[in-house]
Amino acid sequence: MDTLKALLTALRQWWSEFTLQAKLLALSTLVVSLIMTGFTFFSLASIQADARLSDTRYARDVGLLLAANVTSLVAEGQDRQLITVANRFWEQSNSIRYILFADPDGVIYLTLPLDNAEEDSALRLRRRLELPDSIYDHPGDPLVRQHLSPDGQVTDVFVPLMANGQNLGSVALGLNPNEVVLNTTALTRKVTIAVFITIWVLVILGAVFNALTITHPIKALLHGVRKIAAGQFSTRIALPMGGELGELLEGFNAMASQLEVYKAANIEEMKVANKELKVAQAQQQSLIATMADGAMLLDDQGRVVLANPTSQRLFRWEARKLVGEPLVNLLPESLLMDVGEALQQVLAGEQATRDIRCSFGSPTRTLRIVLVAVTDPSSSVLKGVTVTLQDLSREVELNAAQSRFISNVSHELRTPLFNIKTYVETLHDLWTQISDEERSEFLATANAETDRLTRLVNDVLDLSRLESGQEFRFEPMELRPALEQTLRNYRLNAFDKGVRLLCEVEPTLPRVQANFDLLLQVLDNLVGNALKFTPSGGLVCLRAYLWPDSCPVPEVSTSATINDLTSRMPRLRVEVSDTGCGMNEPDQARIFGRFYRAENTVHTQQGTGLGLAIVRNIMEKQGSVPKLVSKPGVGTTFWFELPLEGSDDDELALLAERAQTDTASDAAIIPRRRSG
């Protein structure tokens, strides 16, 4: 098959190199040869048809003659005389190959030449003849046919035997074709072959003549044009030709000389233009690669042609082969329905642009995906689709945080503002009707509510700053100064309340990766809560140790699980434990939620309910999660872990992202109940 294709290609190339005059000459010669060949074949076919018709008539006449001589013998049952007459016919004619007789049922009962061993005869026939019923309706029109046997062509004649309208059977003859016809056919074949050879020899000679006289300069001109098209302007054609063809070659040489001069004059300009083009392409690629938004280009079938690094990071495609892959095969399943339907509408020309928003992945990312059809300005044919990806996750989180804060602040600010307004209005309206003692009490209550409102606003601002996504700098630091400053801040409060304040810290603590101000705020909230819920005579203790290399298990750790007491890599653990009132399990599950206060069950302590939410958010920034164990009537222990100096920044960032994801469900607002 490959050889045939190569041969056809070579023939097409050979034919394309001829001039129009040569092609017309060859085609006219071919047409004339085909017409002559057609006439020859028509004449020979007519001669052969006449020969076959004569042979058929001769076989028909012989069959009718034999039937006329044997019909009476068959009707009278004179078998011996039948055999004699049939044998005489067979011996007197060299063209008869066989004669056979069949009864009305088609059963053959006599064959000539006589041969008892029919099974081995070269002229073996079937023992039964099946002839059409219509042959008996026209006894004078026998059935004649021809077939090819191993010994050559044979003409078969089937003649019905009828006497007084009675069907006596049939007789069949086989005749050899006429020798004259065979000789004529052979002669015709030889003449035809000779005519074909003669015609095609003339065609080939004419083609060679044209090639020698005309084709050579045309080929030279064609090769020269191809070299000029390839940029080889120094090409020249030197052939001693005259006439129009010579003028054509001279014009070609002049054109090549002018192009060579033009190339030499503009080579520097082309270099400068190419350099500027490369710079522009590099700038464009750099711009696409550094875009904050994801950008992709698809072809008219929806296959990826280009994807910038931002889009690869959004879908985590960094290690995948993208070019040539259909976009619908690359997208996460959660996006297939929305994006796939929109992409099909753009590809089908139903819409020129689609703007959709969808969410996927864990943690959940919110994307804005803009699909725009790219069409040919002249024909409006779709050439591809541009895909712009904008990560709106941060905006969505900020909007949700803003809504939550508005709800929280409106709820928590209502009570102190109402109390302040109530007492101030009472003083304003009833100043002369109330005693000095009542005035002092009202002013003290308003002042306390003002302090409460100030603390609430400060806590809300701190929590808002943490949840807004502000970046904090974490650097190597010593933990001991933060612990000592926290103890100094609360030593006087502990003394006034009669609570012992201890610090159990190993003498050689490793440096940690942390933010001093945020760490001080965490310790301040935890120690302040411990003092608030520890009665007089109780104990508040700060501990710090390397974990998991050493782990003093707190005495109050009665509900901690194995997962709570393990760590994947060495860290510094900080604990704040107290011997206060403790918490039940429902309170432990909700204590880190915003505006939730454990004193709902005791109704004795004041607070904003945001301290532990701030602690949780600060620790999430460092890839840690604060935990606790507590038992009512025994006490509570809070702890958190800090990464050591030299920890991998990428791993810490990943842990921080996981910590924020794991605690996202705890961010619901839990309003506190007033104590009445």
UniProtKB/TrEMBL annotation:
GO terms for molecular function: ATP binding; phosphorelay response regulator activity; phosphorelay sensor kinase activity; protein kinase activator activity. Residues 280-350 form the PAS domain. This is histidine kinase. It is a multi-pass membrane protein. Keywords: ATP-binding, Kinase, Membrane, Nucleotide-binding, Phosphoprotein, Transferase, Transmembrane, Transmembrane helix, Two-component regulatory system. Residues 212-264 form the HAMP domain. GO terms for biological process: osmosensory signaling via phosphorelay pathway. It is an enzyme of class 2 (transferase). It is found in: Membrane.
